[in-house]
Amino acid sequence: MNLEEYLKNQFIRSNTVPIITWELVKLRISQINQCAFCTDMHGKELVKLNVDMQRIIGLSAWGEMPYYSETERAALLLAEKLTCEGDIDSDNFSRIAGCLGEREMVDLAVAINAVNSWNRIAKTFQLEVGSYEPG
C-alpha cells in the first residue's frame, strides 16, 4: 500500500458524529493548514456525499454563513480552536459542550489532531494534488 492509499483509508471515523460533519471538519482543517492534497480530497468527498456546493464553498467563512447546523458549528469551532490555538477557553468549551456530547467532543478532538498530523505528512511528501478519487 502506498502513502496515498494509506491516507485515503486511515482518517478517523466515528459513529458519534455524522459523516458530513466529519468531512466538513476535515476540509476546514486542511484549508487552515493549506494542505492542497487533503483540501482536494475532502472537497471531493463532500461532493460525493451530495453536499450543497454553497456549504463547501462557504466553509472558510462558516461563522458568517447560514448553511451550517449548530452541531456543525460546534464541531468547526472546536476544529479551528484546536488547529489554530491548540486549546479552547472555558466559554468556547461550554458552547461546544452544549451542542456536542462528551463522547462526540473526545472523538472530534482525537480526529482533529489526527487530521492535523495527516496534513503535515501529506505536505511533507508532496502528494499529487488532484490524484485522489473518492472510493
Describe the model.
With 135 residues, the protein is mostly helical. Helices cover 64% and strands 0% of the residues. The chain is built from seven helices and no strands. The protein has helices spanning 3-9, 19-32, 36-48, 53-57, 70-84, 90-99, 102-124. The longest helix is centred in the C-terminal third of the chain and has 23 residues, at 102-124. It is globular. It starts with a helix and ends in an 11-residue tail after the last helix. Residues 4-14 have low confidence and may be disordered.
Uncertain spans, ≥5 residues at pLDDT below 50?
4-14
Strand content: under 5%
List the total number of helices.
7
Distance between the termini: 15 Å
**Main beta sheet, described?**
none
Descriptors:
135 residues, mainly alpha
SSE map:
Layout: H1 3-9, H2 19-32, H3 36-48, H4 53-57, H5 70-84, H6 90-99, H7 102-124
Helix pairs in contact: 2-3, 2-5, 2-7, 5-6, 5-7
Short description, anyone?
With 135 residues, the protein is mostly helical.
